[in-house]
Design brief:
This protein is an all-alpha fold. The protein contains five helices and no strands.
Length: 149
């Protein structure tokens, strides 16, 4: 099984990167939709349009991409070329990936609140949240490419 994974490693890595790109696109776009949604009156046509956009983004793009990221990441760890668990850069990268997962889950909860017309947060809150995935992504890329420690 491990030999088969080793042979498939370039494809697994490619799928991992594709998943990361799709997931990050959603993590960066959904809070921006929330910013605009806060300005729409609950029950308005605009609000209902945002609800559809947010639901489709989360369910059709973000959830499958997140699953692909963690599935392919796990497969990479199972190969001979995968990183060692005691390498500092890898632990930081993994912690940041868990941070992205936590953000994803919070965004899913906020989306449900918007769907129920129960949002209590301001556009400023979502503007700040919009920066968190960027910081985590930058850290992940630096850890994976530079491997500073």
């Amino acid at each position: 099984m491990i030999d088969l994974l080793d042979e498939a490693l370039p494809w697994i890595k490619a799928l991992h990167i594709i998943g990361v790109i799709a997931w990050m696109a959603g993590l960066l776009y959904l809070p921006r939709l929330f910013v605009y949604h806060t300005a729409a009156a609950p029950g308005s046509e605009t609000s209902e349009t945002f609800k559809v956009m947010e639901r489709r983004l989360l369910r059709a793009i973000m959830n499958p991409a997140m699953i692909a990221v963690f599935l392919t990441g796990g497969l990479i760890l199972m190969t001979a070329g995968g990183p060692e668990w005691d390498q500092g850069w890898f632990l930081v990268k993994l912690a940041c990936a868990v941070g992205l997962l936590a953000l994803h889950m919070m965004m899913a909860r906020w989306r449900r609140q918007f769907a129920d017309d129960a949002n209590t947060r301001s556009d400023k809150f979502y503007r700040v949240v919009n920066e968190a995935p960027t910081v985590l992504m930058i850290t992940i890329v630096i850890m994976a490419v530079v491997k500073p420690f």
